[in-house]
């Protein structure tokens, strides 16, 4: 499933596409919200791995403006819950992810992104 926790790790890997290939941009995204158990320690452990600006920009692109633009140094429970919602409860079910550099399209169907490349696109 494409959740923002996963999306925050994905970049384009098409042949020759090595710069400005993150984050992939959503197009025609259909979002579904699904509750997930809140684990504040898990969210705190993710913080060093998250590209904050990319996460905030992508969440805004998908209609969620709940995260502050700058990553706070201290995370209270309310902000951890907000981050949990954005990372784990927003599911992109249908649509596309598009590379901002080479415009390669990665389709999403039934919540599953197709990250496979054709033979001529492989680096």
Second-tier CATH architecture: Single Sheet
**CATH fold name:** N-terminal domain of TfIIb
CA-to-CA gap between the ends?
A: 25 Å
Q: Classify the oligomer.
A: single chain
Unreliable spans = none
Count structural domains: 1
Order of helices and strands: EHEHHHEEE
Radius of gyration: 15 Å
Give the count of helical stretches: 4
Class from secondary-structure proportions: alpha+beta
As a percent range, the share of strand residues is 15-25%
- Measured as a percent range, the helix fraction is 25-40%
Q: Calculate the mean pLDDT score and round it.
A: 94
CATH class: Mainly Beta
Total number of β-strand segments?
A: 5
Largest sheet: 5 strands, antiparallel
| Principal-axes shape call | globular
GO molecular function, one term: protein heterodimerization activity
Organism: Pleurotus ostreatus (Oyster mushroom)
InterPro entries: Trm112 (IPR039127), Trm112-like (IPR005651)
Subunit structure: Interacts with TRM9.
